[in-house]
Structure formats: structure tokens, C-alpha cells
Write a structure and sequence with these properties.
- The chain is of the alpha+beta class.
- It has 26 helices and 26 strands.
- Helix 25 links the parallel strand 25 and strand 26.
- Helix 1 runs antiparallel to helix 2 and helix 17 crosses helix 18.
- The protein is elongated.
Length: 681
């Protein structure tokens, strides 16, 4: 066969070569050495990009491509053993569209093989994040156990597997069987192990999966026994008797024989039920004492599994439906400065759009100059992007192996035209941030007005950034107080504004005239003062006059208000321009002071209790939950500490959840939180 010239450009071919090299490097570290340098999700993202290129340019697929391989190679320290049954690895689905295509593909193949329309059912099992082990039993006795290795040859770890309490040494039935399962370490035992490491002055372990894999490869079985590993068995590779007719019955049989089987498997009538199971466990995954990174979906009927068979590297009858990634890889296409409402300049990476944690992302903050230098991130770099829950996307690592030499380092400019004046910028003394020297540029004023009307401040429904832009550009407003002077005739002149739109906006503005002290403080855009600090100030001082007259020392006495914040507030209220702006605003609005706000609730059942909210709650918006806490006398904090009473955790809770577990802080889901609001206990 002659050589087929590729249609791909030189850049695509070079990109593919770097993807192959990077995947193989990180895959070897993860599967063979158990020393991952990047997360599973980031590695999956690289693999996904490689498969997309190979799908578009099939002529570029080579036998040594990572897409054509099942797994890594065994370590030389252990005896190598050939698997009696080849060990396949499942293909991955990352989105609902992917899993629906798997369903359609399965049905097409079954029809092509049988000539009939077949509607298979499925079984969903939790995908445990551990180390795969293949165990062989003869006449009911454990005789061998091996790692997966490269799918054909693994490592003999029989003596180590025998130390695990959940592994049966003799089955409940004298049968010949080869089974597959996962070895894992519980989160709670992982924490105990790291505390012991810390006590001994030794390095901490990175994650439970690494400990499980490293333990199985210990040459001394007594060390393995001390680690208190666990197993789940999930598949029969070979059986000396008749195989069950369904996958769910196979799991039942494994349980009856004496194997530990994960109890959360579930038969599903169709792919819609599969999707519901996946969505449920995406939310519940953090409630378990072990890590799961997705759902394994298998055709339930063994008859159909046999018809579907295998491709060159994976079974057709099953797929790993991975949870929405919180880490992916993408490319930095540009870095630009964004001016905030306090005049601070934030560098923002403009990215090749990528799906992460369920949404498409094309921007990520780089925070400041020091962070850019720490990451050494450049325009053109391939980076790992992270998004956990409602956290703003963050670049956590640069994959320097992808550099071609064309990447451009970012240097902060001397001037930024949007800053106004002569455009000069300066680094804030004692901080990593830059700001505009001229503090009242048009760009800054515009940002302040966006913030003023936002839901965290005056919450003027319908007055979003686009409408604020129209009002500014038409010179109908120049500051916040002007908003409350708008008339129907003014708004009617704006393009796209009809009578109903005018009426709705004016009603929203009128409603916003009554504002709590906390929201009023938030609306002022005082440097260093965020939502939680504003609420702390409102609770402590109760009236605006008390706050304006307070000394730096009085402010510093408030928990959470440090020297920098106190100085910033004190200076802001003594600036002539700010004084004038507040006076104009007070002529237009009415502040509901904190003493009257708190007395609107008869019960103060949460008085003195501090809450931290993390993740996405099923029904409650974050602001709604905070308001419920404050009305009942509770406080809301942005960080978990020993002083935190409760952490309310939703989907994708992230590091705050982990911190709460570490400190022993009570963690509530939404149902428990609502019960606490209702009963106070």
C-alpha cells in the first residue's frame, strides 16, 4: 500500500506529535510510576484533543498513538505474569451528547449484526478512582492476583492483595473464576495516614489513589496491611460455570460468592435513566468516603454484550461516563488588562474556548503580575485550566513541553489609555496589583455603575451593563444618583426602549430606593470591601453615620477587618469626591439600618453562628441562602476556619468542603440546612 499524503497542516502535525509525547509522559508517570504531575481530568483533556485530531485526520493515526493503547507497562521489580483474559479499558464519554451517541452506536451495531431493532437496557456502576486488580481463584481458593499492566502482562501482587481484609481468601463456593476489581483507600484512612506522616516529619501523600497504587507495589506485605486498603469487585473475566444472563445478576453472583461489591449500582431501562443516574452522582460524589470520577455504563443483557464484543482496544458494550471535568487543557490566545471598579488592573487570559465543569469558558483571571511570573504563562502556551463549583476559572499549570519558541511573555505596560488622564498606571505599595493613577476615569466610573446596579448592591432589575452603557453614552446619567432622577421621557429616547420597558425599569428603580445598609456599603465600591466585609460593617455599626465617623481602631476591632481594610474605609469616607457622591445618593434613597432589618425577624435562632457556603445548591441561590442566615441572626464567612460552625455544601464543593472535613466542621446539605433554618437545631 502506498503512502497517503496527509491533508493536515504542518502546525496540526506538530501539535499531534507533542500531544502524543505529553500523554505518554504523563500516562507513564500515572499508571506505571504512580507519580502523576497533572490530574486525571487534565490528562483526559489532552487525550480528547488527540482523538479529535485523529478523527478529523485518520491518516495521522499510528500504531504507537496513545489512542491505540490500553495501558502502561509493568514495573521490573515484580514478577511479570501474562493475563489469561486480556484486560481492556473502556472508552470515555464526557458529555450527554457523547453518551447518547454511545446508545445510538450500540443500537446500530446490534441491528447490523442481527437484522432486528434491539433496545438494550443498561447497568450503571460507580467508577472508583483506584488501582485495577485481576484475581484468580481455583476451586474457590485465591491463587493469584495481578495489576492490569499493559492489558496483556501485569505484575504479580498476590501476597499484597492477600493482606486486604475485604479480599476473600476462600469463596463461598468452590468454583474456578477470574475477577476484576479496584483497590482503593478511604478518605478517612488517607487523612489518618497523612497525619502520621506529618508526625514523623515525612512528606505527605498526594491523594488516596497514589497511596493505594504505591501500597500494592510495596515489597513488604506488612506495610500493605498497615494501610488498610479496600476493594470493590465488579466483573467476571472468566467463569468455570454458566455465566449469569445479565450484568446486574453478575454483580449479585459476585456478592454471593463473598466479594465486596459496590452497592450503588443500578439497572436502567434506557439511556435517559443512565443520564439521570450520572447527574445524581455528580452531585453526591463528595458524600462518599472514597473518590469516584464517573459512572461505568454497561449493556445489561449478556447476550447483547457477546454480540457487541470488542474493538481493537475497548469493549463496545460499555463506556466510562466521566463526571464533568474541573480541569481541562486549552491554549492562551491573548492576555489583556481589565479595569475594575476601584481602578485595579487585572490581567485576563483570553483562551481557546473549552468546556469545563459544565460550561464553556474563554476567559480566566491571572490575578496579578506576580501570578503571571509564578506560572511563567505566555501568550500561545498550552495550560491546565481549573474550575471548581462557582469559582472563577483559574490557570493552575503551564505545560511547557508544548512550547515551540513562538510564545510571547507578557509585560505590564507603562500606560493604559482607558485609565484616563495621561494613562499612567502604578503598582500598589505592598501589593502585587497595579492600578490607574487617575482614579476617576470613564472606564472606572462605568464599572462602578455596573456594580452599583448589580444584584449584590442596589439590585435594580433590568439595569444591566448594556443599559448602563446606553444611559452613559446618551449622557442621561454620569453618576449613581442620576439613576434615580430618570424620567419616562428620558428613557423613551433610547433605542429599543418601548413603553413597557420604560415602565418596568422605572418601577425597578423606585423599588430600589429602599436599601439595606449592607447593600448601600457594597454599592460604594470602597477598595478592599467585599460583600462579607460590608455585612460585618453593617451589623457592627448599624447606621451609616456611625460607620462614617468611626476611627481606624474601631474598624480594626471587627473580626475580619484588618489594618489595610480599615485604612481603606477610613480614607474613602474622608475623600471630598466620595463625600459629595454619598450626599447626592442620600437625597435619593432610604437606608434600612441594620437594627431595623434584624428586628424584622422574631426568631434569632442562628445568632452567633458562622456559616460558609460552597458549591451549587439544588434549589437555593447563593444570595437567597445568605439572606436566610442573616435574617435569623447568623453570620456568613467566605473562608472555613476553626471558628466556622457550619459549611453548607452543594455540588462541586471543592476545597472548602475538604477544609471543613479536616477541621471537623459540621457539613450540611441543602435539606439539612433548610431544616436548621426551620427548627434552629
Amino acid at each position: 500500500m502506498g503512502f497517503m499524503k496527509s491533508r493536515a497542516s504542518k502546525e496540526i502535525i506538530e501539535r499531534l506529535a507533542k500531544l502524543k509525547a505529553s500523554i505518554e509522559y504523563h500516562r507513564y508517570n500515572y499508571h506505571v510510576l504512580d507519580k502523576p504531575e497533572i490530574s486525571d481530568e487534565a490528562l483526559d483533556s489532552l487525550k480528547n484533543e488527540l482523538v479529535k485530531i485523529e478523527t478529523e485526520y485518520p491518516e495521522l493515526i499510528t500504531p504507537d498513538s496513545p489512542s491505540q493503547r490500553v495501558a502502561g507497562t509493568p514495573l521490573p521489580e515484580f514478577k511479570k505474569v501474562a493475563h489469561k483474559v486480556p484486560q481492556w479499558s473502556f472508552n470515555d464519554a464526557f458529555t450527554i451528547e457523547d453518551i447518547k451517541e454511545f446508545d445510538a452506536r450500540t443500537k446500530r451495531f446490534l441491528k447490523s449484526e442481527t437484522g432486528k431493532d434491539i433496545w438494550p437496557s443498561y447497568v450503571c456502576e460507580l467508577k472508583i478512582d483506584g488501582l485495577k486488580i485481576v484475581s484468580e481463584y481455583k476451586n474457590g481458593l485465591l491463587v493469584a492476583a495481578a495489576t492490569r499492566g499493559d492489558g496483556k502482562v501485569g505484575e504479580d501482587v498476590t501476597m499484597n492483595i492477600r493482606t486486604i481484609e475485604s479480599v476473600p481468601l476462600r469463596l463461598n463456593k468452590d468454583v474456578d473464576i477470574i475477577v476484576e476489581g479496584e483497590v482503593w483507600l478511604s478518605k478517612s484512612n488517607f487523612e489518618k495516614l497523612n497525619k502520621e506522616q506529618e508526625r514523623k516529619g515525612k512528606p505527605l501523600f498526594a491523594n488516596p489513589r497514589n497511596v493505594a497504587a504505591g501500597s500494592i507495589r510495596q515489597l513488604d506485605p506488612s506495610i500493605v496491611a498497615e494501610r488498610r486498603l479496600e476493594t470493590f469487585t465488579y466483573d467476571i473475566a472468566s467463569y468455570g460455570e454458566k455465566m449469569p444472563a445479565k450484568q446486574e445478576l453478575e454483580l449479585t453472583l459476585l456478592n454471593e460468592l463473598g466479594f465486596k461489591v459496590n452497592k450503588y449500582f443500578e439497572p436502567c431501562r434506557d439511556i435517559d435513566e443512565v443520564i439521570s443516574f450520572w447527574q445524581k452522582w455528580q452531585k453526591k460524589k463528595d458524600s462518599l468516603d472514597y473518590f469516584i470520577d464517573g459512572v461505568v455504563v454497561k449493556v445489561n443483557e449478556k447476550e447483547y454484550q457477546d454480540i457487541l464484543g470488542f474493538t481493537g482496544k475497548a469493549p463496545r458494550y460499555g463506556i466510562a461516563f466521566k463526571f464533568q471535568a474541573e480541569q481541562v487543557t486549552t491554549i492562551v490566545e491573548d492576555i489583556q488588562l481589565q479595569i475594575g471598579r476601584t481602578g485595579v488592573l487585572t490581567p485576563v487570559a483570553h483562551l481557546r474556548p473549552v468546556l469545563v465543569a459544565g460550561s464553556t469558558v474563554s476567559r480566566a483571571t491571572l490575578h496579578n503580575e506576580d501570578e503571571i511570573k509564578r506560572l511563567d504563562v505566555r501568550v500561545g502556551d498550552t495550560v491546565i485550566l481549573q474550575k471548581a463549583g462557582d469559582v472563577i476559572p483559574d490557570i493552575v499549570k503551564v505545560l511547557t513541553e508544548f512550547r515551540s519558541g513562538k510564545e510571547k511573555p507578557y509585560v505590564f505596560p507603562k500606560k493604559v489609555s482607558e485609565c484616563g488622564g495621561d494613562g499612567s498606571i502604578e503598582r500598589i505599595p505592598g501589593q502585587a496589583a497595579y492600578r490607574c493613577v487617575f482614579k476617576n476615569s470613564f472606564a472606572v466610573q462605568r464599572r462602578r455603575l455596573y456594580h452599583f446596579a448589580s444584584k449584590h448592591a442596589f439590585d435594580i432589575d433590568g439595569l444591566g451593563p448594556k443599559i448602563v452603557d446606553k444611559l452613559l453614552d446618551s449622557q442621561l446619567i454620569s453618576n449613581a444618583s442620576d439613576i434615580f432622577s430618570l424620567k419616562a421621557g428620558d428613557l423613551a429616547t433610547l433605542e429599543g426602549f418601548k413603553e413597557k420597558s420604560v415602565t418596568n425599569l422605572l418601577e425597578a428603580i423606585e423599588k430600589a430606593r429602599d436599601v439595606s445598609l449592607a447593600r448601600f456599603i457594597i454599592s460604594l465600591s470602597i477598595p478592599q470591601v467585599g460583600e462579607e466585609t460590608a455585612n460585618d460593617l453593617a451589623v457592627h455599626f448599624k447606621t451609616l453615620d456611625s460607620l462614617r465617623e468611626a476611627s481606624v481602631e474601631e474598624m480594626q476591632a471587627i473580626n475580619g477587618v484588618g489594618d489595610v481594610v480599615a485604612e481603606s474605609i477610613y480614607s474613602w469616607f474622608r475623600d471630598g469626591i466620595n463625600k459629595e457622591a454619598v450626599q447626592k445618593l442620600l437625597k435619593q434613597v432610604r437606608i434600612k439600618h441594620e437594627d431595623s432589618v434584624r428586628t424584622t425577624s422574631k426568631k434569632q435562632t442562628l445568632s452567633g453562628k458562622t456559616f460558609v457556603l460552597t458549591g451549587t445548591l439544588p434549589t437555593l441561590e447563593r444570595d437567597e441562602a445568605k439572606e436566610k442566615i442573616r435574617v435569623l441572626g447568623g453570620n456568613v464567612s467566605s473562608s472555613v476556619s476553626a471558628k466556622t460552625d457550619y459549611v453548607v455544601a452543594g455540588e462541586s464543593a471543592g476545597s472548602k468542603y475538604d477544609k471543613a472535613v479536616e477541621l471537623g466542621v459540621t457539613i450540611l446539605d441543602e435539606d439539612e440546612f433548610l431544616k436548621l433554618l426551620e427548627t434552629g437545631v
